[in-house]
Amino acid sequence: HFTEQLLGLVIIQMRTNYVLIDYENVQPSSLAGLDAEHFRVLVFVGASQSKLTFEIVAAVQKLGVRAEYVKIAGNGSNALDFHIAFHIGQLAAQDPTACFHIVSGDSGFDPLIKHLKERKVFASRSKDVSEIPILKPANTKTKPARIDLVLANLQQRGDSKPKTMKTLRNMIESLFMKQL
Hints:
By secondary structure, the chain is an alpha/beta fold. 43% of the residues lie in helices and 16% in strands. It has seven helices and five strands; from the N terminus they run αββαβαβαβααα. The protein has helices at residues 2-14, 54-63, 79-94, 110-118, 136-139, 143-157, 165-175; strands at residues 17-22, 39-45, 67-71, 99-103, 122-126. Strand 4 (99-103), helix 4 and strand 5 form a beta-alpha-beta unit.
């Protein structure tokens, strides 16, 4: 599973990555790692939610046109979840190569994710922004863990390993989203 994630990282980074945050369910403390050109962030806010944290508002504002709030209309069981599902369908139709990352503790999204994957739409659910698969290498803090990630990536490449120091450096920067 881990090596599949590493293999897909380079491909995923080139695609548009939509991060859909279920703010009713999860109030992330940070949007660290999402300030890159290939990310689009949608923060879904419940109809009766009237407060957002300053940290989230400031982080969304910093992303500019690459982020937006979606205030849902009406209340009801799973109303916000249906809005997220609708937006994923709409965005997948517009951008079939996009990747979708739902940030929610609600396991009710898992059947939707399975359905999307069966239709060759990349989707995942994470309980926090820091757990999004594409961000995990960037969030690795210890030197031995970073070395292990680089070695695993190189092993997966087989004969297509970097031939020069510059190419190796670029591969490592890409793997860690230039956050080393």
